[in-house]
Amino acid sequence: MGISDLFLVSGGGNIGLKPIFLHGFSGVLHLVFLFMLLGSWVFKRFSGKQGFSGDNVVRWGYYRLALLTSWGLAIFSVVICLLSNFYWYRNGWSDDKVLVIFDSVSKAVTWVVVSVYVSTQVKNSGEVKYPLVLRVWWCFYFSISCYSVVLDYVFYIKHQSLELQFVVSDALYVVTGLLLCFVGFMGRSEVSGNENGNGLLQEPLLSADSNGLSNGVEFRESRGGETVTPYASANIFSTLTFHWIDSVVALGFKKPLDLEDVPQLASMDSVKGAFPRLSDELRFGGGDNSIMTTSRLVKALMYTTWKEYLFTAVLAFVNTVSTYVGPYLIDSLVQYLNGRREFKNEGYFLVSAFVIAKVIESLTVRQWYFKLQQVGNRAKAALIALVYHKGLTLSGQSKKSHTSGEIINFMTVDAERIGDFSWYMHDPWLVFLQVSLALGILYKNLGLASIATFFATVIVMLANVPLGRLTEDYQTNLMESKDQRMKATSEILRNMRILKLQGWEMKFLSKIMELRNTEAVWLKKYVFTNAFITFIFWGTPTFVAMVTFGTCILLGIPLESGKILSALATFRILQEPIYSLPDVITMIIQTKVSLDRISSFLRLDDIQTDVVKRLPVGSCDTAVEIVDGTFSWDVCSPNPTLKDINFKVSRGMRVAVCGIVGSGKSSLLSCILGEVPRLSGVIEISGTKAYVAQSPWIQSGKIEDNILFGKEMDRERYEKVLEACCLKKDLEILSFGDQTVIGERGINLSGGQKQRIQIARALYQDADIYLFDDPFSAVDAHTGSHLFKECLLGLLESKTVIYITHQVEFLPAADLILVMKGGRIAQSGKYGDILNSGSEFMELVGAHKTALSALDSMNAVSASKALNVGEDRNVGGDNNSKETSKVEDGKPPEDIASLKGQIVQEEEREKGRVGFIVYWKYITTAYGGALVPFILLSQVLFQILQIGSNYWMAWASPVSESAAPPVESSTLLIVYVALAVGSSFCILARAMSVAAAGYQTAAVLFQKMHLSIFRAPMSFFDSTPSGRILNRASTDQSTVDLNMPYQVGTFAFSIIQLLGVIAVMCQVSWWIFLVFIPIIALCIWLQQYYLPAARELARLIGVSKAPVIQHFAETISGSTTIRSFDQERRFRDTSMKLIDANSRPKFHTAGAMEWLCFRLDILANLTFAFSLILLISIPEGTISPSLAGLAVTYGLTLNMLQGWVIWNLCNLENRIISVERILQYASIQSEPPLVVEQNRPDDNWPSSGKVDICNLQVRYAPHMPLVLRGLTCTFQGGKKNGIVGRTGSGKSTLIQTIFRIVEPTTGKISIDGIDISLIGLHDLRSRLSIIPQDPTMFEGTVRSNLDPLEEYTDEQIWEVLDKCQLGEEVRNKEKKLDSTVSENGENWSVGQRQLVCLGRVLLKKSKVLILDEATASVDTATDNMIQETLRQHFTDSTVLTIAHRITSVLDSDMVLVLDNGLVEEYDTPAKLLENKSSSFSKLVAEYSVRSNTSFENKGKP
């Protein structure tokens, strides 16, 4: 069967030994089998046999082996068929040649048909074994192959001439025949049902057949996230070929991948395996944070990955050596083509050496790159976990130096960059190896001229030093400015509701743009410096070549074409480390900066673990005791936060803590929790503790999960807790009950609901000690009484409870009252004992009595008697609660959820191919795309000039020493230098243009996205966790800033380079082009098969990153609560799960990428092998040996370029997703315009403040029921109006509608006769004032918090500070008005923040003022002060007040009572109270009952 018969001598002897018999018999046999196979298929097609049903999964033994062997033989046979034509062309026409062509064509056609048949028909053949016709054919094929090898041996011993490639082909046929016989006899089908289907593992290696898997397999696939990646158990063959990723790629081709389709990571790649190793090594190296250095962190990272590091180093070494085999042999190949023969079959030896080297290069580079990515993912995950672990233990003082926005950058940017450095980890030493090998080859060919090459290379390397330092400086400044921007962005997103209510969003947007402009200065310097570096290094190989060849001419070293081509090939390979050298240096610098930043963060002080001494439970009767305690948030401050603290709490006691705003109440609880650094004294605690913060901290997730907080469900206890916390009625209203998903920071819950969920969380823990930080401030009178009675006096009757309260009526129930003033305990004792013993407590009680005097004058006592029965009846539920509900807060009611699902949905992601419009928008964003043609033209000219310079050197130099040179040596060099310099300047133009276009595009996209986000309606922020927005502003924007311009450019440049290589190779012989066509078609098909999975995996990487950021941001804000419940371990575990969920698609993206590249390398190597065989087969003199050598020179880079094009395309698709995500947020539907020029109100509007509401109907979505159902009333100008009502009555919805946070469905609101829906939002909101329920301060100064728009003088600001009783506090600070306000105003108490909000409205002096439960966070005395201040300074303003304290609305001119979105009552307070059955009278009576009732301490010793 072997083609070797072509060269046998025909003559006498046995007919079976003659070529005419062997080729004729082989060709006929193939044709007969072909007809049999087609007949079998036609028979089955029309006989109605359907094979296995679609409900079953068919698994064939050794199916992969059969498929691979068949396709391998098909490709090989096609190549041999083409080669046969060349033999005919060389040796002339004969009968033997006709038979050879007949034989080779029949074999090629037959094996292609067999391969298609095996791919499409075998699985559903319905037979237990492989089809009989196949098994019979495989046996015949093996027999004939053996016969052919025997003939080869016979002629060998007869000393007949045998060509090497034909002997190899005969041997290959024997091996493949044996494999097919084995498959035919051993392979059997196994049929299984849906539940056991494992068709994933049976997908053809290159098959895109979408019918290959049944429904049962799809069910199995959907559970991929529960299985460990096949990589963990892959054999050597699967590992080398990346066969283990087939299942994921195949599934991605069939449907868009979801996260659950991606298998779990093996333990060694999981963060649960990597983080312990890293933290253990850091601890082993010394446990003191203060000595954490960058070098120590690097050593720890290296220790966790040292095995992979060594293995990849070996792969890198072998790969580098194999890449230099080609340049080493090129001169020998040129001399061979020129007619010189060193030994027999030298040509085939050279071809074999070239091909084997390329195969080794392909195998090693694929494993090398994959392992590097594996190491990088592992290091990144471990670092993120390390940063999270540190963030959970940071001290309060350390938190002030690094905000959550900065720490998010550590996770999203710095850890990512350190992980990416794995790509470059071997490059520093590889550069020296590559230069050494290059110099060795050059010395062999050019002798002493290689010394000049060495010095030229050293000069280039030294040029990196100043450029590297410059880049490092720019990179450091860029990251610092990015930190500042992210910090500000994070804070703004948290407080967007306040910004919109105040009309400040555009001012804060300008603040972000200013920070971006600072960042852009460094970005511009960075990208243009990189562009210049690109120019230098792309010109470096040309510079080295000029120096080398110039030295040869000076020294008289002959320049032969073979030696020149060898040198050029060496320079081309040497280009890779030289090209990548700027990237390596830049990456080393960036990584060092990131390592420095993370190590400095890790050096920050942790919270002191020895502040609190824990005593064994039951060891004593003392629950909490502080002796001579002095504590300070800032240990360096001369004024401690708390001084001389002494008190003892026995087990089961109730302790109340009271005092004016800023007296140190919350700090006292923080001391007990161990949060405040101890300067002196002793704290002892016995038992577990639970904590309820003053500002509610709620996790994103289900309500049930928030209450359980890591505990197992105990249904009986759970129901009791819900009942005690008045949550049952709320859960009935919510469509999903306790399964409702809470948005970020509880955005879809009211303040009272969040507070009660917090209390429920604490109660469910069944702790020994409970710490409550004024939890009753956010709830109304009735609910507060119920919570106190049912929780503190009920469920917690036997527990130790320490509670802060501003409600004096809750104090008598305490066994011990601590009165705080100026950081000291001013008084302590029982209610009756201290009532008359000091002025501090008397001030609080007196203020409370003053507030109640209005009730006494209205004879509310009789009303309370009339309501006693009703009050008792309603205690059990929350239906009488006046607390603001989610509906009131202007958030979409949960009825939306019943139709649309939960309010917070999974992050939306595009599916399928990234649309061309995304690419088009990106490349045309800067200057309308005007630079794109110029960039492409520059690259085309560069490619033409570069090929021209190499072509010139090959043509203009002699083939051997004996041949005469076509041109003079000086001419040779001058023309080469001219072409080379021209190409270098083309690179300069290209690099600068790419940098300019990329910089401008990043600036435009940033501006568009941020403008769109800031102009988005509040509903967008309510349903979008800030982590998603921050992810785009951080990670995606970084990609657009630094990566996208080069990614788009590199893709275009790689295509141009590939076309250049193909053009050069086809210059030798157009036959090569025939091979390129099917190979490129197969490459494109492979890429199309791979891309759907790769695209969705890349999107999953982006989508799965946001939960990591969001969970971390929540952890930082709630770290005190988490630590108080001892839940650190659970939160770390959750974080690790989220990190792994992000690492899974990253790991499999790397595997899929190498899966594709490996297959592309195989095809490229086949093309290269075909080209080489063609070159040595063409008769001498047909083509110039120099041009043939030039083709081989370029062919050496073919597999790299071919893979590079596809890799760049795939990488571009992955990276462009960042642009897609930014464009997604650049097209958010915006609010109505800020200014309507044709409807701008006068400067003095509103002049009187009259508010007319006419038939106002409001709903939150078109399909939603009305919340306000035709409300009509008028608030007269200059009058004080109280707004009250039960839960869900629409109080806050009305306020939101006045500010147009929610737009009315019908009806209108007019202020001083102007319809507010017709004017701009800024004109409206800037003329109104509001003091919100949640007091907000921004990071900055006191001045910037009071006057962010910079409209007032310092004198006006001081005047306002004095009016709101903060003047003395600010004057005592060193920097006065420039005193620092930390993130969220954490260095100010909640009450002080509320006073700052009061100062803002005093500065603004609007004619319309709205108080939305504005005094909830302050004590009664401060509340009275605020009310008095407002009465003095807003005498002629319209004031609308929603308040939990009835005393705040009793002095109103009018009271509006809402019920179910309608006006129930609207009159003066006096008239409403005259009617004892009015709703307002009942509300007043409830408050009076609670305020006049002492929760006496009964049953306590």
Indicate the low-confidence ranges by residue numbers: 1-16, 48-59, 189-224, 859-901
Could you give the count of β-strands? Answer: 26
User: What is the overall silhouette?
Assistant: elongated
Strand content: 5-15%
Please tally the helical runs, counting DSSP H or I stretches of 4 or more residues: 51
Structural class label:
alpha/beta
Estimate the mean pLDDT confidence: 76
Strand order in the sheet with the most strands: 8-11-12-6-13-14
Largest sheet: 6 strands, mixed
Q: Level of helix content?
A: 55-70%
Set out the fold topology.
Elements: H1 19-47, E1 57-60, H2 63-91, H3 95-120, H4 132-157, H5 164-186, E2 189-192, H6 215-221, H7 236-241, H8 246-254, H9 271-284, H10 294-304, H11 306-323, H12 325-337, H13 346-393, H14 396-401, H15 404-420, H16 427-446, H17 449-462, H18 464-494, H19 496-502, H20 505-555, H21 561-602, E3 612-615, E4 622-631, E5 642-650, E6 654-659, H22 665-673, E7 678-686, E8 689-692, E9 701-702, H23 703-708, H24 715-724, H25 728-733, E10 741-742, H26 751-764, E11 769-773, H27 781-795, E12 800-804, E13 816-821, E14 824-829, H28 831-834, H29 839-857, H30 860-874, H31 895-900, H32 916-925, H33 931-955, H34 969-1014, H35 1018-1023, H36 1026-1068, H37 1071-1117, H38 1119-1124, H39 1128-1177, H40 1185-1195, H41 1198-1225, E15 1251-1258, E16 1268-1275, E17 1280-1285, H42 1291-1298, E18 1306-1311, E19 1314-1315, H43 1321-1325, E20 1328-1331, E21 1340-1341, H44 1342-1346, H45 1354-1363, H46 1367-1371, E22 1380-1381, H47 1390-1404, E23 1408-1412, H48 1420-1433, E24 1438-1442, H49 1447-1450, E25 1454-1459, E26 1462-1467, H50 1469-1474, H51 1479-1492
Parallel strand pairs: 3-7, 6-12, 6-13, 8-11, 11-12, 17-24, 17-25, 20-23, 23-24
Antiparallel strand pairs: 1-2, 4-5, 4-7, 9-10, 13-14, 15-16, 15-18, 18-19, 21-22, 25-26
Helix pairs in contact: 1-3, 1-4, 2-3, 2-5, 2-39, 4-5, 8-37, 9-10, 9-13, 11-13, 11-16, 12-13, 12-21, 12-40, 13-15, 13-39, 15-18, 15-21, 15-37, 16-17, 16-21, 17-20, 18-20, 18-21, 18-36, 20-21, 20-34, 21-33, 21-40, 30-51, 32-34, 33-34, 33-36, 33-40, 34-36, 34-41, 36-37, 36-40, 36-41, 37-39, ...
